[in-house]
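step: validate -> pass
step: tokenize input -> pass
step: predict -> running
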Amino acid sequence: MEREKLNSLLVSPDKTIKQAMQILTLTSEKILFVVDSKEKLLGTLTDGDIRSGLINGLDFSETIDKVMNIEFISLGIDEPGMREKARTRMVENKIEQVPVIDEKGKIIDIFLWTDILGEKRVSKPAKLLGNQVVIMAGGKGTRLDPFTKILPKPLIPVGNRAIIELIMEKFYFSGFHRFIYTLNYKKEYIKLFLKENSLPYDISWIDEDEFLGTAGGLSLLRDKIADTFFVTNCDSLISVDFNDVLNWHKNHKAMMTVVGCHNEVRIPFGVLQFSNGKLERIMEKPVHDVIINTGVYVIEPHVLSMIPEGQHMDMNQLIDKAAQEGVVAVYPIYDGWLDIGQWEEYRKSLEKMGDIKEY
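step: predict -> pass
step: emit ->
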């Protein structure tokens, strides 16, 4: 690996979780190597390590030495056949990077999966899974007026493709190919699109006679789903390994799992902190780090019995109800979520994907 690229993956243990998240996003290598001042390798850091730390109550301002993995896999500089050994360890341990360290523990090189194979892994599922994906596509999309007076929100173009086509593709890359749509507003447009585009998926739909909210339409699926399933809004585009989300859900023995994404809430004013009428400090335009709901969920089929048949119910109500009955888990991510549901976010999403520069 070129030294410049290697250096970009090295971080000190006093970096904050938020700083590490930003570096992971910039480098796109899914891993950072935590080193001391002499570049001695102390541990590794992945998005999974950060996710576990946040779930266990750590704040974004905590340092990464609290979440790094100190039981890392590495190669010694004098080991014969390093390239083949790196490949073996990647396959056996299901990892994509193996660091090379010298006799003092200093990191001097990194083998990447792309170095071994000469190309990136093919974005195609190793096997197809039976779990179904429900795409909630019955709403009016009023936040996108006047666009949605002509076309329904699920057919919003992102580049030259409809948003629902991109959503299904991302699930398919993780092995999920069975999709059910809940339809209402301008449903014939959506049915025509799904019929005429010869998409390589198992697709069906149900019709809502009334607008039943962001969760109410799921009551129509009680006799159609028998296994753990995903639910996604039709305006939520997320880059994540959905198989990993499913495993997270199972490991937490959850009734529901909500996929959340890090977001910065910027307050454009000076915020006063005071006690008993006496000013203690002014925080000028503070930034708060929060995890927000992406509109993507994993749900156990018995949760459907909590939804009143034929009645309006929003997803936050269903989540609250499930939390009273059992475990609702959270799967946090820090990047890779695009919200297409309102004009400003739609514009930002197109900019991120390189489809437009600016209006």
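step: describe -> The chain has two domains: 3-117, 129-352.
step: cleanup -> pass
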